[in-house]
């Protein structure tokens, strides 16, 4: 440790605290503004009697297969997350599924997608994967989600009605494709050297020694394998498409429950709008944002506002209640499950104990 590290530590802590405070305030303000906007879209001009009538005439038996499709979609998302790890470094399937559901549980009860941090912590505890590597795969997941939902949107465009935001989606897709291509090329040519350069500013903080930065860059390079390995990218893309198509099927089954007489493409447009809306900072369970995005999609099919809102509310419940029930159960289970790191530490202490050495000598 350098002699000046103890003197710098309080200053480092003050800088980090101030940065977190500014970032937190910005996220809160953005969340409030976005929530107000989408809630206004959802509730503007609603006829409460017509909305209640739509809820009363809904055939709720269709929600059973909708929930099954929803569950399969989340299993596919967990397997997609695992596929983003390099072969030989992938965490167990069960631990990945647990972390995924717990993350979605926290996304449902906390704002600004706070569940992403929760599932990183859970998978760190339940597997041997380093947290920096896990964080890299989580970042890639969001990129794969946006890319896939845009690909589905453009592929289905001939069967979709005209929407005013098609041009904006095309611009986002082009910019994102160029950024991904550039990042993949840089990582393929230079390895983890660009990541070391990007992480270099962290060396001003006393906690980040040169060895830590080197290790973090190597772990992050492993976490971003889905950018520079076409085999990992292809596998992850297949799982991502499967996950979104299960979500589309879930949305279509709820359409059948409300007797909306809409094509399968309408459910696809609904999921595209929701998927793009989830990019924005949102309140717990994306309340307001989810409904507003759904209504924007159904407006293209001329669905009356007072019918579209009950549909959006029921679809949202299908996407919310399972996370709360299953996530809470898994959270309780994981609180009692020994972490991989603790188990290894206990094993090492056991191996060094006098009783263990005596048993070896006796053997």
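-> sequence recovered:
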């Amino acid at each position: 440790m350098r002699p000046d590290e103890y003197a710098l530590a309080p200053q480092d802590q003050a800088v980090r605290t101030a940065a977190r405070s500014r970032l937190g305030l910005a996220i809160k303000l953005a969340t409030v503004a976005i929530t107000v906007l989408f809630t206004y879209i959802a509730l503007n001009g609603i006829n409460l009697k017509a909305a209640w009538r739509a809820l009363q005439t809904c055939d709720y038996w269709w929600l059973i297969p909708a929930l099954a499709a929803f569950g399969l979609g989340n299993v596919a998302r967990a397997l997609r997350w695992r596929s983003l790890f390099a072969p030989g470094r992938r965490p167990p399937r069960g631990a990945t599924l647990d972390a995924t559901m717990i993350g979605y549980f926290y996304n449902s009860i906390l704002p600004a997608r706070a569940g992403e941090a929760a599932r990183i912590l859970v998978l760190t505890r339940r597997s041997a994967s380093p947290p920096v590597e896990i964080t890299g795969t989580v970042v890639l997941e969001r990129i794969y989600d946006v890319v896939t939902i845009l690909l589905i949107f453009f592929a289905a465009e001939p069967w979709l009605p005209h929407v005013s935001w098609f041009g904006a989606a095309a611009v986002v897709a082009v910019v994102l494709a160029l950024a991904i291509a550039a990042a993949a090329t840089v990582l393929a040519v230079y390895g983890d050297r660009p990541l070391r350069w990007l992480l270099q500013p962290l060396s001003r903080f006393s906690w980040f020694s040169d060895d830590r930065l080197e290790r973090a860059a190597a772990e992050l390079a492993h976490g971003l394998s889905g950018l520079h390995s076409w085999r990992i990218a292809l596998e992850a893309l297949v799982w991502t498409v499967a996950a979104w198509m299960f979500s589309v099927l879930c949305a279509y089954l709820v359409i059948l429950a409300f007797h909306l007489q809409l094509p399968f493409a309408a459910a696809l447009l609904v999921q595209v709008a929701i998927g793009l809306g989830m990019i924005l900072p949102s309140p717990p369970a994306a309340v307001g944002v989810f409904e507003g995005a759904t209504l924007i999609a159904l407006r293209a099919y001329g669905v009356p506002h007072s019918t579209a809102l009950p549909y959006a509310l029921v679809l949202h419940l299908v996407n919310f209640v399972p996370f709360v029930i299953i996530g809470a159960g898994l959270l309780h289970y994981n609180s009692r499950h020994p972490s991989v790191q603790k188990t290894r530490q206990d094993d090492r202490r056991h191996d060094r104990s006098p009783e263990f050495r005596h048993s070896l000598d006796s053997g």
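The first helix runs from residue 5 to 43.
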